[in-house]
Write the structure tokens for this entry.
Amino acid sequence: MIVFDYDACIKCGKCEKICPSLAIAIDDYPELRYADKCWHCCACIKECPAGAIRLRLLPHIGDQRYELLAFEDGKDVVYQVFFEGNVVDEMRVRVRR
């Protein structure tokens, strides 16, 4: 499930625009308005300039205390795995552009 950090959110609207399934809507803040349509593709997470969106594992997949954050760092996309708010793993993927 996609979760938003409203304290970090800058309300830029990029998450709503990038979502291929149109699951995110923004009024005052973004919300996963149509959770059943979310593909869990992480496009919104990678697009968020504030790092305010994370993917929380679904109950049938694993422990909900784990979250995933993805962001661009130069030519890499960095994926960080959090457990109870602390980074426990990180993976970098070089992206061709």
User: Anything to note?
Assistant: The mean pLDDT is 87. DSSP finds two helices and seven strands in the chain. Residues 45 and 53 are 5 Å apart (CA to CA).
